[in-house]
Amino acid sequence: MSVFAIYGATGHTGRLVTAELLSRGKDVVLSDRDPAALAALGHERILPAGLDEPAALRTLAEMADVIIHCAGPFATTALPIARAAVEGGCHYIDHSVEVHTVKHLFDTFPTRAQSAGVTVLPSVSFYGGIGDLLAGAVARGVSEIDRITVAYAVSNWMMTHGAVETARLLFADTERIGFADGALQTGFIEPRSAVFAFPPPVGPRPMIAPVPFPEAVTVPRHTRTRSVEAQLTANTFAEEQAFTSEHVTADARAASEFTVAAQVLAAHGSAAGSLRGRDLWRAAALASVEAAVRLTEGRAKSGVASPAEAFDATDFLTALVNRGAFTLDLPEQQ
Prior knowledge:
alpha/beta, seven-stranded mixed sheet, 27% strand, globular
């Protein structure tokens, strides 16, 4: 039986990932930087491992077939765990939204991952990963694409401590990565106000555009387009609870509502699709677990890939629908 390791198992996402894997009857080993918090989980298989303990991280990788990394901010945590996974011959999945980190993993590990026969999947999460999958599904069969916009409408988002720190890093970044004129571009990008027309019942909403999510790096890997942009409803960060909810209960944190839409504009028409649900944290956990199970079943090539590059996007999203992550509306040709 395959062994699934969860790093950051004591956090909110780590607990959701653990619960989902156990509900599927999977063999799980839990890891974290805090030995006491890890022991308090009461799970029989645990391995404390700090980010500055490469031997312990390597041991974790050698115990498992896949590591699901849930402990952000990933700008500081992703590299040592990804390195340990590849060196230990273990698949790697994370929940990173930091676009520079995602790009760094793509730049650093492709050859080493291929040589080790493992797959590295960054950003298999809500922001970034779900958008990448939806863009891939909507764009299928569309040629001469000029622009892909992935738009997130999120309300009642209650961020964890790690999410708050990540948000601060993202919006303080002055060297942002974008994709325009058919190429990655790095430099200062002035955010602008925009309006995106979500499907009913959400409708047109004021947006922050662009937001520094990973789609600029991940979507062009599987879909040929001249530009990619991610947007987020302006009200998401204006809601009072967003930055003041680090200690709320899991049930309260599950009350977020979301719609994600992908708009594909091409020379000969357009295509659009969307998904809608509650509890973005659970949607993220389900996505990473689905990817991990598929990796252990040999359903992706070795190397570094985005979710829609590694898997059939429509099939993957449908699997998440069947798990209750969200509802899905794709173009009829899908």
